[in-house]
Amino acid sequence: MTKLFTSGFSHLILFIGIFIMIVPVWMIFASSTHTSSVINMGGLQMFLGESFYDNYLRVLLYKGGFFKEITALKMFFNSFIMATGVAILSVVTSLMAAYALVYYRIKYASFLFWIIFITILVPLELRIFPTYSIMAELNLVNSYFGLIVPISASAIATLFFRQFYKTVPDELLESAKLDGANTWRFFIDFLIPLSKTMIVAMLIFMFVFGYNQYLWPLLVTTSEQYWTVVMGLKMMSGSIVHRFAFVIMSMVPPILIIVVLQKHFIKGVFQDK
Amino acid sequence: MSFLDLKNVTKIYPNGTKAVHETSLSVDEGEFMVFVGPSGCGKSTLLRMVAGLEDITDGDINLDGKLINNVDPSERDVAMVFQNYALYPHMNVYNNLAYGLKNRGIDKKTIEQKVNDAAKLLQISEFLQRKPSMLSGGQRQRVAMGRAIVRNPKIFLFDEPLSNLDAKLRIQMRLEIKKLQQKVGVTSIFVTHDQVEAMTLADRLAVINDGIIEQLGTPIEIYNNPKSLFVAGFIGSPQMNFLDGNLKNKTLSAEGFEIRDINSDFEGDVTLGIRPEHLIQSDNALINLKVELVEQLGSDNLVYGQLKNKNDFCYRCPGNQKVENGTELNLQIDENKYYIFDKSSGKRVN
User: Fold this and answer.
1) Tens digit of pLDDT for each residue in B1-46?
2) Model ipTM over 0.90
3) How many structural domains is chain A composed of?
4) B203 and B60 within one domain
């Protein structure tokens, strides 16, 4: 009886939590399918309206910005390039950094690792001026390269891969060596396949991280051609329903990625073998 | 020069521990050499130096007439079977066997041929598509051996490969390893702390203690003729009985008995060693044993008890002989099969 009560109670709490999170999103979605006049007169709507296609198509294709140069579609494209670039670049560098730290006989390897780790405590905002000035001197302002590279060194991913490599038994390396594998082959043939789930998890993690960037893209782009979705949320002008539609669409890519790859994500982060 | 030659090989770890003292050893082609010793005696280190997984501090290792001190393990053409098998968990059995061949640039058809042959030899053909995690301990062991065989290396190295198996499987695999080695004929070094494994597998045996080879010889030589107290105590089960004594004028006096006309000129404190199986019951006995415990193994009885001076002592008699707890047995040493060691140095003196 008490068991039934506690499980019922915990479900109740969960339902309340879901309700609190879902309802505002739903209201925005429902409202985004109405015309502006409905919203202006009747406030936020709980039920779907009939202007879904009109609103969403207009938002996607409407040329916005100060100079009317950018469409939402282009922003999604920019965000996708940036998020993918950050994800791939940071995973590749972290994999290799962790490999060097664990498997090469580097003096002070653990000291070096902690130096890398400490960078977690230094947010982008703190180094934004020097980073910007480097990018400016390299003429990388207003380029995908400038958007991606400065935020693509991930201490968290390095930490994850390093901890994972440390659990790989030494005999595996020794056995591979005797089988004629050099250090590069060991990396490609063993560590990468063995950390596959973790790589996927980190790709998702870094994709969302890259997608969510606001301050850095804002600084490093002056041309509207490089606006990203998250910047667009602030910059977009237009009627309220169009903004709502844009908000809803901006949530889709990260959700989609997590839904599709969540199995790997959970496996990778919580290493069940 | 023999097939594998170790000359004054030494290993000192960076923290100053000397794991292997100047060791020289040669292994002939096709020979099955076993390193046996207690844990931490340096036997695995010695093996790993042959494999190239440990650097050599000093000395030379020659394999097949070539100095291999500075040759990378991947180019030494040696194969090793590890204690925990070290199978590649993300590859199926076929790829586990094929991996070493692929790295040597052998063409696909030959690889397939070789893998299938090895799998047949080890009776693992039906598991070729499985991952190691889906195999039992014995099957994994076979895959690990298959991975060694398939490459047809110059030398097999076994690092306590049987210690993760249960008792029955261990005996079975022991036999299979020996048979396999005879069939394939590859020079092998086998490291173990289990003296039964050592005795049964070895063509020649190296008993290692504290980084030094105490004795090298065929198993039976070592059993019959141990050169030191350590070897005498290590080889043989149950362990050899040791009694304190004194040797003077070719006469040994110990524990209230004397043995005359000993063929040794040594004088001083000694340890007398008698194997439990080298005792017989007799009326004109030297040793009087008060029985405390009898272990009946079926074929044999192991009789444990104490001598008059409270020394523990063991006697092995045929299983059909009935021995009661609390009785006293009079024992004679069988045909002068006893060993006398210098008490201070541990060296054999008779």
Assistant:
1) 789 999 999 999 989 889 999 999 999 999 999 999 998 899 999 9
2) no
3) 1
4) yes
Question: Has residue A29 been placed in a domain?
Answer: no
Instruction: Say how far apart CA A183 and CA A102 lie, in whole Å.
Output: 12
**Is A47 within the bounds of a domain?**
no
| C-alpha to C-alpha distance for B303 and B296, rounded to whole angstroms | 9
Q: Does a structural domain hold residue B347?
A: no
Instruction: Judge whether B36 lies within some domain.
Output: yes
Q: Is B104 on the interface with A (CB under 8 A)?
A: yes
Same domain? B82 vs B128: yes
pTM, to two decimals:
0.81
Q: Which residue of A173, A179, A197, A273 is the best one to mutate when testing the B interface, meaning the one whose CB has the most B CBs within 10 A?
A: A179
Q: Which of B165, B198, B230 is the last residue of a domain?
A: B230
Residue B321 lies in domain: 239-342
Half-sphere exposure of B294 (CA within 13 A, CB side): 20
Touching check for B75 and chain A: CB below 8 Å? Answer: yes
Range list of β-strands (E), chain B: 4-12, 18-27, 32-36, 58-63, 66-67, 78-81, 155-159, 187-192, 204-209, 212-217, 241-248, 251-254, 257-259, 268-274, 279-281, 287-296, 300-306, 312-318, 328-333, 339-342
**Which of B44, B45, B78, B102 to probe the A interface (max A CBs under 10 A)?**
B102
CB proximity A272 to B under 8 Å: no
Per DSSP, what are the bridge partners of residue B4?
B27, B63
Identify whether residues B243 and B146 lie together within a single domain: no
Name the domain boundary from B190, B210, B230. Answer: B230
**Identity (one letter) of the amino acid at B348?**
R
With an 8 Å Cβ cutoff, are B151 and A177 in contact?
A: no
